[in-house]
Known about the structure:
It is found in: Cell membrane. Keywords: Cell membrane, Membrane, Transmembrane, Transmembrane helix. It comes from Heliomicrobium undosum. By secondary structure, the chain is mainly alpha-helical. It contains 6 helices and no strands. The chain has helices spanning 4-30, 35-40, 44-66, 71-95, 101-106, 110-131.
Amino acid sequence: xxxxxxxxxxxxxxxxxxxxxxxxxxxxxxxxxxxxxxxxxxxxxxxxxxxxxxxxxxxxxxxxxxxxxxxxxxxxxxxxxxxxxxxxxxxxxxxxxxxxxxxxxxxxxxxxxxxxxxxxxxxxxxxxxxxx
Length: 132
């Protein structure tokens, strides 16, 4: 017989993966370029920022899983954290119009990609702490 913890782990994984996929889908929708197309063209800047979004989201989901007693609480806090990260990204983009991150990423500007990646991972750490 498989222990109950095995099934719980699968449930937590499924819910967390769904939250991650939905959040990445939303990120794809809020960028003015086609992320998948840019990555297929070899745009490392867009690839790096997508990587850092997923790392930041994984940190948030880690906290949601680790600090909640039920799957529903995990889903609520994980979704809240992902939404907070998306909102923070949009707010940062709006507050820094002179940086033109979207256009620079589409051009493959790695300096902008590294800065934005640092922001996503830092946001993930901060949100992780806030929801734990």
